[in-house]
Amino acid sequence: MSFLTDRNQATKLGFHLSSTLPINRSIIQGSGIGPTLFIMFTAYDRKALDILNFLITYADDATVLPPQNSKTSVKLDMAHIMN
User: 10 in helix, strand or coil?
Assistant: First the structure.
């Protein structure tokens, strides 16, 4: 359980290291499910249920950004994408 909770990350550019921030989404690099999700997310074209919702994907990560007037909830849209 400790592998999946209380995770932090920092970014290093040259000799500069950012402050650490908690990781609250995505798949942890090196996890067993990471390669499967990468293949799943890159193998086909995903679309949001609501044409107004903006879907951002990169490798093994997906984010839905709905506008305030969207008729489809983020929870429903993400369930559709995962199915």
Answer: coil
